[in-house]
Amino acid sequence: MAILTRGQFRSIAESKSGYRGLTGYVNENRTYSKSAATTSIFLSHSHYDKDVVEQAKIFFENLGISIYVDWADETMPERTNGTTANKIKNQIISVNDKFVLLATNNAVNSKWCNWEVGIADPFKLPKKKFAILPLANNSGSWDGNEYLQIYPRIEKNPRESGGEGYYVWYPDNTWETIENWLRKL
Question: Helices in the chain by DSSP H: which ranges?
Fold first, then answer.
């Protein structure tokens, strides 16, 4: 198991983006719809990582899954406040099926991301609807906190049949393909 670097994740997203490319994939005019996807993900992330959020959107949408990004939601207040926190809490608990922390070094050090992990943990972890997607800097350094070791991780690994695939690894060393994990209701 190896943590992807930001550069590796960018290459993966580029290969899946096709002719559209990477920029502008997340709608900057603050619109969001759950679309026709069978499940959706609340994507916890640092606002310093908008480029990686676009890559994550491409990555998950190529698997048939929609993602919720708070700053693309036109119902969110322009400036963060208590209403923002309540709306995020509702999105995590009630609206989106799964929770994924886009665990870059910026996110690991973000108060909002850590607060969102605390909200999601009791609602999503027991139902196996919680995972982190750790992304190291291109030098390979990652600031992951010790407590993140209790959560399932999304990682790229060789497939038994050849090639590579993405898996959700659980702390007890069991795993499942990301496709199976995403389609579980």
Answer: 6-17, 50-61, 82-90, 105-108, 111-124, 178-183
Crossing angle of the two packed helices 6-17 and 50-61, in degrees rounded to 10: 50
Q: Distance (Å, rounded) from C-alpha 94 to C-alpha 135?
A: 27
The answer to whether residue 97 scores a pLDDT higher than 90 is yes
- In which band, very low, low, confident or very high, does the pLDDT at 22 lie, cut at 50, 70 and 90? low
Cα separation, 11 vs 172, in Å, equals 30
pLDDT band at 42 (very low <50, low <70, confident <90, very high): very high
In angstroms, the CA 88 to CA 58 distance is 22
Mean pLDDT of the chain: 87
The amino acid occupying position 107 is A
74, with CB counted inside 10 A (0-12, 13-18, 19+), is exposed
End-to-end CA distance of the chain: 26
For residue 61, count other CB atoms closer than 10 A to its CB: 16
Determine contact, residues 30/161, Cβ cutoff 8 Å: no
Higher pLDDT, 78 or 34: 78
